[in-house]
Amino acid sequence: MSAIQIRDLRFAYPDSEPAIDGADLDVEAGEILLVTGGSGSGKSTLLRAVNGLVPHSTGGSFGGDVVVFGRSTRTHRPRELADVVGFVHQDPEAQFVVDQVEADLAFTLENLGTPPAAMRRRVEEVLDALGIAHLRSRAPASLSGGERQRCAIAGALAAGPQALVLDEPTSQLDPQGAEDVLAAIGRLNTDLGTTVLIAEHRLERAGPLADRAVIVESGRPGLPGLPGPVLAEYPGAPSVTRLGRVLGWDPLPLTVRDARRLAVTVELPLADLPEPAAPGDLLVRGERIRVDLGGRKVLDGVDLEARRGDVLALLGRNGSGKTTLLRALAGLIDVERGAVERIGSVAYVPQHPGSMLFAPTVRREVTETLRLLGRRDHGDVDRWLEALGLESLAERHPRSLSGGERQRVAIAAVAVGGADVLLLDEPTRGMDWPSRAALEQAVRAHANNGGAVVLATHDVELVARLATHAVVLGDGDVVADGDARTVLSGSLFAPQVLRVLPPYLTVEEVALAVGARQ
Amino acid sequence: MHTRTPLHAVTWLIWALAAAFTVQLAPSPVYVAVVIGICALVVEMHAPRTAFSRAFPIILSLAVAFGLLRVLLTALTSHGIGDVWFTLPSFELPRVLGGFTVGGTIEGPVVLQASAEAFVIVGVIAAFGAFNALASHYELVQSAPRAFHELGLVVTVGIAFVPSTILSIQAAREADKARTGGRVVRRGRLLRLVIPVLESGLERAVALAESMDSRGFARSTAARAEQASAWCGLGALVALGGAFVALIGRADAAALGLSIAGSALLVFAVFLASRATERMRYRPRPLTGADWTVRGASLLAPIAVGIAAVAGDSSLVWVAQPLAWPSVSVLPVVGILFLLAPMLVRPIAADRDADEIAAHPVARTAPGVGALIGSKPQ
């Protein structure tokens, strides 16, 4: 019998269209099953149905059956499934109950009435299992995203559940944090045989980890199968898989390692790579910027300039000063030394779009900026809604949207003001592929129309497709600066295609080269 | 369990209550100032670097602002008591609103007396703020009777929202500024700040409730005997506290009745609790000698001041009419100094968190799980 059986599941949130429409899915004991699909496809709802949060905490109309290790969610509430299913949220901040890591790990065990000696041993074991023993006395709020998410997984794991359900556990994390979390999940599965059901947008790392994958589309999961074949036709597949498709490889690779092995036989004429465009007029320039925050030197002598037509990517690990630099360019914080010269107008979109959304509809949210600026002409509203692919969402409430959609609303609401330079802080965090595609298009259009965009990001695939220039920050100053191809080429965190077939950066460039050969 | 302060949360609670009672019993500004100073010293020495300890100065300044407002209102509405400092234009409120005069003579004794009273409030809030900065709220909940555990935890989680709300106010303010490219628009600004903050808070609350449910919260509820025991305990506390107040207020009959009732409830609570099953607790913090010392010493402060009050010490209360410097006597001062007891305990190094990070820079690589579970690591 399967560990988790979902039979003809139908569910609609109160007063809404069905979110899940006839889902059947079996999760076998001991496997890692990857669930993917666009925002709003119902994969989150599907996962929440597994431990009974749907329908017990959401309400709504529920049909069909979900049976978890022999217990039906119809008769068992989430708290009565806590000993067999551990649940991890997308947002690592929202799941800590106690303000100390070690005590939080014990929370589930205390609720289950575990005897103190067993409790103590379990906590020590999960601390080691996730490599967080050194964080035991810290407050979750003081941890980095990756550390926090590993602590949250440890909290779900402490009660020794047979299955872990993770809803996009890495979408809010930087690459290092994401890697740590996925490695920990893989280790748990291998060493403890924990059944894992994981939803992810970014498949570069989660794809190879999974035993099987399934794509959810409009409330219905497709046929699960090996990740390679299942993801073959999926537009959100990792770059190497799409590269394999362009080059007609079989089987399709999921990892850079597989792809490299296949790439040995590929001979491509060196196509004309796009030349860096001639520099446009200067829009914003930072000279020897130094910023101190809380007595710590965050930026120390950073030079940076953005010209018309530039898409400038800021790279660097968490805490390297990317956000601070954007805020300094936007004039939100004062620079200690050096100067910021703003020739064009500058606008900034913060990392968490939730901090600015307040209007009842997406359209009113975007219009509001123009109203604040005292403009009567609202023609730009439709242009930006269209540019970011938001027309169909224009009358929705911004807060009912997915993370990626919200981020796009926030960008539209800031960009509509007509600033020459857009400063975007981690714009692709938590975005599914349609949102990413819409964002890329809007950024390109803005740069082509004579604007400039500065992005702080961890997403090298985005940088590869979009950026004309890249700047790497480390320990408060500039480590590398130049056109994107040059900067990424020497990097350990190069995008996938560059690692398989240098000097190509993107699948599109390879496709062009293939076209030239034929 | 690693702990961030050297004393138990209940010890801090007793210490803070002792400080608050002392201020109430000795409302003369001199004594209040000493207690506030002690609170600040203890916070400085022992508070872990959390959002709550950073909030201590904010709480104090809020208390001062509140006090000043109170002084202002009193000065504007109380007249005909003593020396007039100066006179403001005045108007009379309509009958419906009380019919008293606002403005007019501003009198020295009124201002001074109101200031002294406001200062007492600042003192009580300082004790409360110090407790928040010093104690782990969760530790306090863990020590509460089983029947209060669920309720207490919900309150604790609620309190934890305060610092995160302050952060999201900052984020919303910045987003609002970023939106117009730095141009400040005041119209409708409150709405643009309040809605994101409230909605973010609500979203977090829903997510947290789901997380707590997923993690088995409230899976088993307290047995009836435990609930009864807890309520009896609470009743006993209230009755004994009332007896204490009645004693100070020289209502001897009431004090006697209340103390008998309180003692009876206490005995009954202990009897019921002994029949109930124990809740499983993870590494409950043991009480150390330091805890008992601080508890005992702290309680000496209100007791000493109480004795002074019963003995009719006139320095405890200061009145502005006739105007004189507040006087000081030995017994209350010695009593209040007992509140310094936490200073005798060695603090836990403030920058330990930072040390730990430095000590484990690459602690990411964890040992295989199999080595730990089932067999002892070699």
Explain what this protein looks like in three dimensions:
- The complex is a heterodimer of chains A (518) and B (378).
- Chain A is of the alpha/beta class and 518 residues long.
- Chain A is built from 19 helices and 19 strands.
- In chain A, strand 9 (212-217) and strand 10 form a beta hairpin.
- The longest helix of chain A is centred in the middle third of the chain and has 18 residues, at 175-192.
- The radius of gyration of chain A is 24 Å and the shape is globular.
- Chain B is mainly alpha-helical and 378 residues long.
- Among the domains of chain B are: 9-141 and 287-354, no CATH class; 224-276.
- The longest helix of chain B is centred in the middle third of the chain and has 31 residues, at 149-179.
- Classes of the chains: A alpha/beta (518), B mainly alpha (378).
- At the A-B interface, strand 6, helix 3, helix 4, helix 6 and strand 15 of A face helix 6, helix 7 and helix 12 of B.
Helix fraction of chain B, binned, reads 55-70%
Architecture (CATH level 2) name of the largest domain in chain A: 3-Layer(aba) Sandwich
CATH homologous superfamily of the largest domain in chain A?
Answer: P-loop containing nucleotide triphosphate hydrolases
Q: What general outline of chain B do the C-alpha atoms trace?
A: globular
Number of domains of chain A: 2
Q: How would you classify the helix and strand content of chain B by structural class?
A: mainly alpha
Instruction: Specify which chain pair forms the largest interface.
Output: A-B, 88 and 71 residues
Oligomer type? heterodimer
Give me the CATH fold name of the largest domain in chain A.
Rossmann fold
Task: Please tally the β strands of chain B and state the result.
Answer: 2
**Can you list the strand order of the major beta sheet of chain B?**
1-2
Largest sheet of chain A: 6 strands, mixed
Give the amount of beta strand of chain A, in percent: 15-25%
Instruction: Give the helix tally of chain A.
Output: 19
Main beta-sheet strand count, sense and barrel state of chain B: 2 strands, antiparallel
